[in-house]
Amino acid sequence: MRHPFDHPSVSRLIALALEEDLGRGDVTTLATVPPDRVAQGKITAKADLIIAGLPLGERILRALDATAGFRALAVEGSAVRKGEVVAELWGNAPALLVAERTLLNFLQHLSGIATVTRRFVDAVAGTRCKIIDTRKTLPGFRLLDKYAVTCGGGSNHRLGLDDGVLIKDNHIAVCGGVGEAVRRARSLVSALLRIEVECTNLLEVQEALDAGADIILLDNMATAQIREAVQLARGRALLEASGNIGLERVREVAETGVDFISVGALTHSAPAADLSMTIMTSS
After folding, report:
1. Is there a catalytic annotation at residue 82?
2. 160 and 87 in one domain?
3. Are residues 33 and 164 in the same domain?
4. Fewest C-beta atoms under 10 Å: which of 40, 102, 126, 167?
């Protein structure tokens, strides 16, 4: 299977980010640094975090200096402590200076997602429940955001609209009901695709079960309702809880017996991890 970093969209995203930052040229670097100066540097964690995105560092540097080097000193998805050096880099000094912000933007964003994900995963440890992500990602960053979730120990929901059937409230409203939507999907899509449907109450859960849904998304239900849904399903369908489930509540929801908890905040609200780059001249 192709690694997310090898996807053409990631190369385009890096090129776009560098183009956006560089514009017509780095006037500060051009004015202050000789073009043939070489330098080395390091990237340091300024807080405890889960590191993600280090392999992108070399790709970003090489886009500016084909001879640049990048050595990761931490393992992807591992916990690093405040003050730990996670990577070393070297090459043309102007290229390192141009790359700095873009490289840190990628690393901080992905590490932030991985760090938040790990907190959720740790919170449900010992239960059968898996923490999964959503499609609430930055445009263009879908592959990378979902990769970062896996670095934090979480699992991926569907990548895009072509990746699975998920019948949501607006589909149900247009189609005319939970059961009707599931039956129509079952008759039209490949038998290899699982059919998931969103339900907001126990009556809809029963309707989805009767129609043969493979997965039922329990949307914005209270914990007591979720527990009742688990009893109602009795293993006939996988259950996913979603909606307003933060760290303070995720454990109690996991203990109801649901199979998955999807958390949009993993990708749409994760704060950037605190990392810095220090560059030292070599000659």
Report:
1. no
2. no
3. no
4. 126
Catalytic residue among 101, 142, 158, 186: 101
DSSP 216-227: EEEES--HHHHH
Q: How many domains does the chain have?
A: 2
219 in active site: yes
Q: Percent of the chain beyond pLDDT 90?
A: 94
For β-strands 38-45 and 275-281, DSSP reports them as: antiparallel
What CATH number is associated with residue 65? 3.90.1170.20
Per-residue pLDDT tens for 34-63?
999 999 999 999 999 999 999 999 999 999
Which of the following is catalytic: 198, 204, 207, 240?
198
Instruction: Tell me the CA end-to-end span of the chain in Å, nearest whole number.
Output: 43
Domain of residue 146: give its range: 122-268
User: Do residues 82 and 19 both lie within one domain?
Assistant: yes
Calpha distance 95→85 (Å, rounded): 21
Catalytic-residue membership of 198:
yes
Confidence bin at 190 (pLDDT 50/70/90): confident
Instruction: Decide if 46 is catalytic.
Output: no
pLDDT of residue 1 exceeding 60, the answer is no
Q: Give me the catalytic one of 168, 180, 210, 252.
A: 168
